[in-house]
């Protein structure tokens, strides 16, 4: 999956086995995200649709 790394100022590809998914719930509004850590230690977050979130077969983050 592709993420944008702000430190590198470019897109990076992260393997699926390094991904985790998370639901952010703020004031009743749910946002679905996929999270990862790049090789330089940068935390990466990409917001996706609920359908894409449900289709991913990766563990959920606490």
Structure description:
- This protein is mostly beta strands.
- It has one domain.
- The protein has one helix and five strands.
- It has one helix at 50-55; strands at 2-5, 10-13, 20-26, 29-37, 43-48.
- The strands form two sheets. A three-stranded antiparallel sheet has the order 3-4-5. Strands 1-2 form a two-stranded antiparallel ribbon.
- β3 and β4 (29-37) form a beta hairpin.
- The longest helix is centred in the last third of the chain and has 6 residues, at 50-55.
- The mean pLDDT is 95.
Mean pLDDT: 95
Total DSSP E strands: 5
What is the radius of gyration? 12 Å
Structural class designation: mainly beta
Total domains:
1
Strand arrangement in the largest pleated sheet: 3-4-5
The residue fraction in helices comes out at under 10%
């Amino acid at each position: 999956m592709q993420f944008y790394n702000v430190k590198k100022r470019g897109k990076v590809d992260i393997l699926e086995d390094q991904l985790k998914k998370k639901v952010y719930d703020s004031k009743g509004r749910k946002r679905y995200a996929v999270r990862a850590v790049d090789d330089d230690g940068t935390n990466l977050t990409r917001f996706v649709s609920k359908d894409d979130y449900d289709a991913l077969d990766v563990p959920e983050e606490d």
